[in-house]
Protein backbone atom coordinates (compact mmCIF):
# COMPACT_ATOMS: atom_id res chain seq x y z
CA UNK A 1 0.00 0.00 0.00
CA UNK A 2 1.43 3.35 -1.00
CA UNK A 3 1.73 6.19 1.48
CA UNK A 4 1.99 9.93 1.11
CA UNK A 5 3.20 12.90 3.12
CA UNK A 6 2.09 16.50 2.62
CA UNK A 7 4.42 19.48 2.96
CA UNK A 8 2.87 22.98 3.03
CA UNK A 9 5.56 25.16 1.52
CA UNK A 10 6.36 28.80 0.87
CA UNK A 11 4.53 32.04 1.45
CA UNK A 12 1.33 30.70 -0.12
CA UNK A 13 1.43 27.42 1.84
CA UNK A 14 1.33 25.31 -1.28
CA UNK A 15 0.90 21.60 -0.71
CA UNK A 16 3.67 19.38 -2.06
CA UNK A 17 3.21 15.62 -1.78
CA UNK A 18 5.74 12.83 -1.56
CA UNK A 19 4.15 9.52 -2.55
CA UNK A 20 6.07 6.37 -1.59
CA UNK A 21 5.53 2.79 -2.73
CA UNK A 22 4.63 -0.04 -0.39
CA UNK A 23 8.23 -1.26 -0.19
CA UNK A 24 9.38 2.22 0.93
CA UNK A 25 12.02 2.26 -1.81
CA UNK A 26 10.65 4.49 -4.58
CA UNK A 27 8.84 7.83 -4.61
CA UNK A 28 7.34 10.52 -6.76
CA UNK A 29 6.97 14.20 -5.87
CA UNK A 30 3.92 16.27 -6.75
CA UNK A 31 4.26 20.07 -6.94
CA UNK A 32 7.51 20.83 -5.07
CA UNK A 33 6.82 24.50 -4.44
CA UNK A 34 10.17 25.13 -2.73
CA UNK A 35 13.38 23.18 -2.14
CA UNK A 36 12.27 22.55 1.41
CA UNK A 37 14.81 20.81 3.65
CA UNK A 38 12.15 18.56 5.19
CA UNK A 39 10.93 17.46 1.78
CA UNK A 40 14.50 16.74 0.69
CA UNK A 41 15.19 14.70 3.81
CA UNK A 42 12.06 12.64 3.10
CA UNK A 43 13.38 11.88 -0.40
CA UNK A 44 16.95 11.07 0.61
CA UNK A 45 17.54 7.34 0.38
CA UNK A 46 14.59 6.81 -1.98
CA UNK A 47 14.68 6.39 -5.73
CA UNK A 48 12.75 9.42 -6.98
CA UNK A 49 11.08 8.34 -10.21
CA UNK A 50 9.39 11.58 -11.23
CA UNK A 51 8.20 15.08 -10.46
CA UNK A 52 4.52 15.42 -11.38
CA UNK A 53 3.19 18.95 -11.78
CA UNK A 54 -0.51 19.73 -11.56
CA UNK A 55 0.24 23.08 -13.19
CA UNK A 56 3.06 25.61 -13.51
CA UNK A 57 2.20 28.56 -11.29
CA UNK A 58 5.31 29.68 -9.46
CA UNK A 59 4.21 28.48 -6.04
CA UNK A 60 4.01 24.91 -7.36
CA UNK A 61 7.33 24.81 -9.25
CA UNK A 62 9.83 26.71 -7.09
CA UNK A 63 11.60 23.54 -5.97
CA UNK A 64 11.58 21.73 -9.32
CA UNK A 65 15.11 22.69 -10.31
CA UNK A 66 16.66 21.59 -7.02
CA UNK A 67 14.73 18.32 -6.82
CA UNK A 68 15.38 17.41 -10.45
CA UNK A 69 19.10 18.05 -10.18
CA UNK A 70 19.56 16.36 -6.80
CA UNK A 71 17.68 13.18 -7.63
CA UNK A 72 18.04 13.03 -11.41
CA UNK A 73 14.32 12.61 -11.98
CA UNK A 74 12.21 13.69 -14.97
CA UNK A 75 9.47 16.31 -14.88
CA UNK A 76 5.94 15.74 -16.20
CA UNK A 77 3.55 18.59 -17.06
CA UNK A 78 0.67 19.20 -19.44
CA UNK A 79 1.72 20.42 -22.87
CA UNK A 80 -0.27 23.65 -22.48
CA UNK A 81 2.12 24.85 -19.77
CA UNK A 82 5.49 23.41 -20.71
CA UNK A 83 6.81 26.87 -21.66
CA UNK A 84 5.73 28.29 -18.29
CA UNK A 85 8.64 26.48 -16.67
CA UNK A 86 11.14 28.62 -18.55
CA UNK A 87 9.21 31.91 -18.43
CA UNK A 88 8.85 33.88 -15.18
CA UNK A 89 6.17 36.00 -16.80
CA UNK A 90 3.95 33.06 -17.65
CA UNK A 91 4.36 31.28 -14.31
CA UNK A 92 3.65 34.52 -12.45
CA UNK A 93 6.82 34.73 -10.38
CA UNK A 94 7.86 38.09 -11.79
CA UNK A 95 4.56 39.63 -10.67
CA UNK A 96 4.99 38.67 -7.00
CA UNK A 97 8.31 40.31 -6.15
CA UNK A 98 7.34 40.60 -2.48
CA UNK A 99 6.84 36.83 -2.31
CA UNK A 100 9.40 35.25 -4.63
CA UNK A 101 12.31 35.99 -6.96
CA UNK A 102 11.74 35.15 -10.63
CA UNK A 103 11.54 31.36 -11.04
CA UNK A 104 12.62 29.42 -14.10
CA UNK A 105 13.74 25.87 -14.75
CA UNK A 106 14.44 23.67 -17.76
CA UNK A 107 11.73 22.34 -20.05
CA UNK A 108 9.99 19.14 -18.92
CA UNK A 109 11.13 15.71 -20.01
CA UNK A 110 7.55 14.48 -20.51
CA UNK A 111 4.26 16.06 -21.59
CA UNK A 112 0.92 14.97 -20.19
CA UNK A 113 -2.37 14.47 -22.02
CA UNK A 114 -5.91 13.85 -20.81
CA UNK A 115 -6.64 10.20 -20.20
CA UNK A 116 -2.99 9.20 -20.12
CA UNK A 117 -1.80 6.62 -17.59
CA UNK A 118 1.62 6.70 -15.94
CA UNK A 119 3.22 3.59 -14.46
CA UNK A 120 5.27 4.91 -11.56
CA UNK A 121 6.39 3.41 -8.21
CA UNK A 122 4.48 0.25 -9.07
CA UNK A 123 1.17 2.12 -9.33
CA UNK A 124 -0.99 3.50 -12.13
CA UNK A 125 -1.54 7.26 -12.13
CA UNK A 126 -4.46 8.43 -14.26
CA UNK A 127 -4.09 11.90 -15.77
CA UNK A 128 -7.21 14.07 -15.89
CA UNK A 129 -6.96 17.41 -17.67
CA UNK A 130 -8.89 19.81 -15.42
CA UNK A 131 -8.37 23.29 -16.90
CA UNK A 132 -9.98 26.44 -15.58
CA UNK A 133 -7.57 27.54 -12.87
CA UNK A 134 -4.94 27.47 -15.61
CA UNK A 135 -4.95 26.06 -19.16
CA UNK A 136 -2.77 23.04 -18.39
CA UNK A 137 -4.07 22.11 -14.97
CA UNK A 138 -4.28 18.37 -14.39
CA UNK A 139 -5.34 16.10 -11.56
CA UNK A 140 -3.72 12.74 -10.81
CA UNK A 141 -5.83 9.79 -9.65
CA UNK A 142 -4.05 6.80 -8.12
CA UNK A 143 -6.27 4.27 -6.39
CA UNK A 144 -8.61 6.24 -4.14
CA UNK A 145 -6.33 9.29 -3.96
CA UNK A 146 -6.88 12.35 -6.14
CA UNK A 147 -4.10 14.94 -6.30
CA UNK A 148 -6.25 17.83 -7.53
CA UNK A 149 -3.82 20.75 -7.68
CA UNK A 150 -5.71 24.04 -7.61
CA UNK A 151 -8.87 22.76 -9.27
CA UNK A 152 -10.87 21.61 -6.24
CA UNK A 153 -10.40 22.56 -2.60
CA UNK A 154 -12.24 21.83 0.63
CA UNK A 155 -15.53 23.66 0.02
CA UNK A 156 -13.85 25.93 -2.50
CA UNK A 157 -12.29 25.95 -5.97
CA UNK A 158 -9.21 27.45 -7.58
CA UNK A 159 -9.17 31.11 -8.48
CA UNK A 160 -9.88 31.93 -12.12
CA UNK A 161 -8.85 35.58 -12.29
CA UNK A 162 -5.23 34.84 -13.24
CA UNK A 163 -4.07 34.78 -16.90
CA UNK A 164 -5.53 31.73 -18.62
CA UNK A 165 -8.17 31.16 -15.96
CA UNK A 166 -11.82 30.54 -16.85
CA UNK A 167 -14.64 30.08 -14.34
CA UNK A 168 -17.00 28.19 -16.65
CA UNK A 169 -14.22 25.89 -17.78
CA UNK A 170 -13.21 25.09 -14.21
CA UNK A 171 -16.80 24.30 -13.27
CA UNK A 172 -17.04 21.90 -16.22
CA UNK A 173 -13.75 20.27 -15.29
CA UNK A 174 -14.96 19.62 -11.75
CA UNK A 175 -18.38 18.33 -12.76
CA UNK A 176 -17.26 16.22 -15.71
CA UNK A 177 -13.88 14.91 -14.52
CA UNK A 178 -13.95 14.93 -10.71
CA UNK A 179 -17.52 14.69 -9.46
CA UNK A 180 -17.97 11.51 -11.53
CA UNK A 181 -15.41 9.73 -9.33
CA UNK A 182 -16.49 7.55 -6.38
CA UNK A 183 -17.60 9.60 -3.39
CA UNK A 184 -14.97 8.10 -1.09
CA UNK A 185 -12.05 9.28 -3.23
CA UNK A 186 -9.78 11.40 -1.04
CA UNK A 187 -9.09 14.82 -2.57
CA UNK A 188 -5.58 16.13 -1.87
CA UNK A 189 -5.59 19.76 -2.98
CA UNK A 190 -2.83 22.22 -3.81
CA UNK A 191 -3.71 24.33 -0.76
CA UNK A 192 -5.52 23.62 2.48
CA UNK A 193 -6.99 20.51 4.00
CA UNK A 194 -8.08 17.21 2.53
CA UNK A 195 -11.65 16.47 1.54
CA UNK A 196 -13.60 13.85 -0.40
CA UNK A 197 -15.48 13.85 -3.66
CA UNK A 198 -18.70 13.09 -1.81
CA UNK A 199 -18.30 15.97 0.61
CA UNK A 200 -17.65 18.44 -2.19
CA UNK A 201 -20.59 17.24 -4.24
CA UNK A 202 -22.83 17.86 -1.22
CA UNK A 203 -21.27 20.92 0.39
CA UNK A 204 -19.15 22.88 -2.09
CA UNK A 205 -20.99 26.20 -2.64
CA UNK A 206 -19.17 26.98 -5.90
CA UNK A 207 -19.86 23.85 -7.95
CA UNK A 208 -22.88 21.62 -7.29
TrEMBL record:
Organism taxonomic ancestry: Bacteria, Bacillati, Bacillota, Bacilli, Bacillales
Name of the protein in its database record: Metallo-beta-lactamase domain-containing protein
Matching Pfam families: Lactamase_B
Domain Metallo-beta-lactamase: 13-191
Keywords: Hydrolase, Metal-binding, Zinc
Organism of provenance: Cohnella abietis
Taxonomic superkingdom: Bacteria
Key word Metal-binding present: yes
Function: Counteracts the endogenous Pycsar antiviral defense system. Phosphodiesterase that enables metal-dependent hydrolysis of host cyclic nucleotide Pycsar defense signals such as cCMP and cUMP.
Molecular functions per Gene Ontology: hydrolase activity; metal ion binding
SUPFAM superfamilies per record: Metallo-hydrolase/oxidoreductase
InterPro entries linked: MBL_Glyoxalase_II, Metallo-B-lactamas, RibonucZ/Hydroxyglut_hydro
Keyword Isomerase attributed: no
Catalytic activity as recorded in UniProt: 3',5'-cyclic CMP + H2O = CMP + H(+); 3',5'-cyclic UMP + H2O = UMP + H(+)
